[in-house]
C-alpha cells in the first residue's frame, strides 16, 4: 500500500515537474486519470452525504456521485496543488482487514501537514475513499457543509450549488490571466 501511494505521488510529480509543469491538456488529462484511478467516488459521496444518502433515489445517488467525481478531479488535478510541497515522507500503513490508512507528512517551506489516505479493498483493488488532512476529514467536512445546505434549501438546492461551482470553475479557466 505504501508503494501504491508512493508510485501515485511519483507519477504526479513527474507530470508537474516537467518542462510544461502539468499545464498542457494532455498532462491535465493524465493527472485526472491518476487521481480518478485510485479513488472510490461512490464511497466518498456516501460519506459526504451521510444520513441523507439513504433518502436519495438511485438516480439521485448516481448524479451526486458524478458531480462529486467532477469536483474531485477538478480540485485534485490542478498542478499547482502539487508544486508547493518540498518533500513528502511516508510514515507508514495501518492495515485492518479490508481497510487501511497510509500516513504521510508533507513538508512545505514554512510548515508541515499530515495527509492520511483512507483506503479500502474493492474487487481486489485498494481505493481511496477519504483523506484526512491535518486531522480534518475531507468527506466529513463536506458532509457538514452539505447538511447545512440541505437544511437551508433541499437536496436539489445542494445539487444546484455544486453544479454552479463546476460551471464557475469552467468559466474561470476560459479567460486566462
Question: Could you please describe the fold and organization of this structure?
Answer:
By secondary structure, the protein is α+β, with helices and mostly antiparallel strands. Helix content is 55%, strand content 23%. The chain contains seven helices and five strands. It has helices at 2-16, 25-37, 41-49, 58-76, 79-83, 138-152, 155-175, and strands at 87-96, 99-107, 112-122, 125-133, 136-137. A five-stranded antiparallel β-sheet has the order 1-2-3-4-5. Helix 1 packs antiparallel against helix 2 (25-37), helix 3 (41-49) packs across helix 6 and helix 4 (58-76) runs parallel beside helix 7 (155-175). It is globular and about 45 Å long. Mean pLDDT is 92; it is low at 173-177.
User: What is the percentage of strand-forming residues?
Assistant: 15-25%
Report the oligomer. Answer: single chain
Low-confidence runs of at least 5 consecutive residues: 173-177
DSSP strand tally = 5
Number of helices: 7
What's the story with the biggest beta sheet?
5 strands, antiparallel
Distance between the termini: 40 Å
Order of helices and strands: HHHHHEEEEEHH
Strand order in the sheet with the most strands: 1-2-3-4-5
Radius of gyration: 17 Å
> Which structural class should the secondary elements be placed in?
alpha+beta
- The whole-number mean of residue pLDDT values reads 92
Large-scale geometry: globular
User: Can you give the helix content as a percent range?
Assistant: 40-55%
Amino acid at each position: 500500500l505504501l508503494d501504491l501511494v508512493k508510485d501515485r505521488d511519483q507519477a504526479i510529480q513527474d507530470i508537474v515537474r516537467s518542462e510544461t509543469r502539468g499545464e498542457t491538456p494532455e498532462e491535465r488529462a493524465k493527472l485526472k486519470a491518476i487521481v480518478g484511478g485510485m479513488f472510490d467516488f461512490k464511497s466518498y459521496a456516501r460519506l459526504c452525504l451521510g444520513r441523507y444518502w439513504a433518502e436519495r433515489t438511485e438516480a439521485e445517488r448516481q448524479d451526486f456521485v458524478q458531480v462529486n467525481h467532477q469536483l474531485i478531479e477538478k480540485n485534485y488535478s490542478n498542478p499547482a496543488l502539487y508544486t508547493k510541497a518540498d518533500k513528502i515522507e511516508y510514515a507508514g500503513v495501518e492495515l485492518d482487514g479490508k481497510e487501511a490508512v497510509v500516513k504521510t507528512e508533507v513538508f512545505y517551506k514554512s510548515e508541515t501537514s499530515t495527509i492520511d489516505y483512507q483506503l479500502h479493498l474493492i474487487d481486489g483493488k485498494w481505493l481511496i475513499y477519504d483523506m484526512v488532512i491535518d486531522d480534518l476529514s475531507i468527506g466529513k467536512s463536506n458532509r457538514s457543509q452539505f447538511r447545512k445546505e440541505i437544511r437551508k434549501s433541499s437536496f436539489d438546492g445542494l445539487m444546484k450549488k455544486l453544479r454552479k461551482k463546476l460551471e464557475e470553475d469552467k468559466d474561470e479557466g476560459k479567460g486566462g490571466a
